[in-house]
Amino acid sequence: MSSSIANSSFILSTILLTFLVYQSKAQLSATFYATTCPNASSIVRSVIQQALQSDIRIGASLIRLHFHDCFVDGCDASILLDNSANIQSEKEAAPNTNSTRGFNVVDNIKTALENSCPGIVSCADVLALAAESSVSLQGGPSWSVLLGRRDSLTANQAGANSSIPSPFEGLSNITSKFSAVGLNTNDLVALSGAHTFGRAQCRLFSNRLYNFSGTGNPDPTLDSSYLTTLRQICPQSGSGFNVANLDPTTPDTFDSNYFTNLQNNQGLLQSDQELFSTAGAPTISIVNTFSGNQTAFFQSFAQSMINMGNISPLTGSSGEIRADCKKVNGS
């Protein structure tokens, strides 16, 4: 009798635990601010629209902040926190330092939201909304952003160094990093398609131009005329901080050309090209589908952004709503 009671209570606690894990996702809702800040989405969009006038790269920079945030302890705006007595900023982690940008636009969005609905919209939700506006304003799909995330009280610099996929990694490592946060191969290929706009610094791909994997030769999967173009932008003795378009065909438009570029051996980063050039990889057929069908790419991208936005959000009474995205309240 006692063992069957123990067994029942174990089953109940397992069910409860499963419920709690999924409840965090369920608590995010497209209508979270419907009564408390009904104009949240349009405020975010308007600030980004303004920013795009003087910085056409800003959309790509903002979506990257959301991505680099979500891969480190979930979508909790930890990437926005500056160094302090208690915080080692993720901004200084290797994938982010001298690289992530757009923090001033995030601050402008937050200020506009605070003026309209003080203390309501989290910085984590600002990043999720900014990603959607950035994509849709530059020709990409729209989607209903699920909202209700709260902001972290701390950052995880070590986690940023270990969890964010690197442009130098092989496909199996990158697939593992996506899998670790609950994202599958389709998500990996779809989200890589965000490289249909924006720029990358030479230091992130110059190894492919001159000395790939210690061979003394360029990456054999790099188209030769594209190689010539990239070497002009990135001389071997250069600083490494010049930038090249991630999509050489339509650099500021969100479209499916990124995937066609991969088919033509014109992926900029190693992590881009290997989606198509890794022999036998399950990613190849997805690249082919997205290249030939932009609608399929847009639908997958929107769903994968929602999936990524669902990674371990703080909800309910966890975390806080930061007044200033750069620091925890009261600091």
TrEMBL record:
Molecular function terms, GO-annotated: heme binding; lactoperoxidase activity; metal ion binding
EC category name: oxidoreductase
Q: Which residues bind substrate?
A: 165
Show which residues constitute the signal peptide: 1-26
**GO BP annotation list:** hydrogen peroxide catabolic process; response to oxidative stress
Q: Which reaction does it catalyse?
A: 2 a phenolic donor + H2O2 = 2 a phenolic radical donor + 2 H2O
Entry EC no(s): 1.11.1.7
Matching entries from Gene3D superfamilies are given as: 1.10.520.10, Peroxidase, domain 2
Spell out the protein name for this chain: Peroxidase
Origin species: Theobroma cacao
Which taxonomic lineage does the organism of this UniProt entry have? Eukaryota, Viridiplantae, Streptophyta, Embryophyta, Tracheophyta
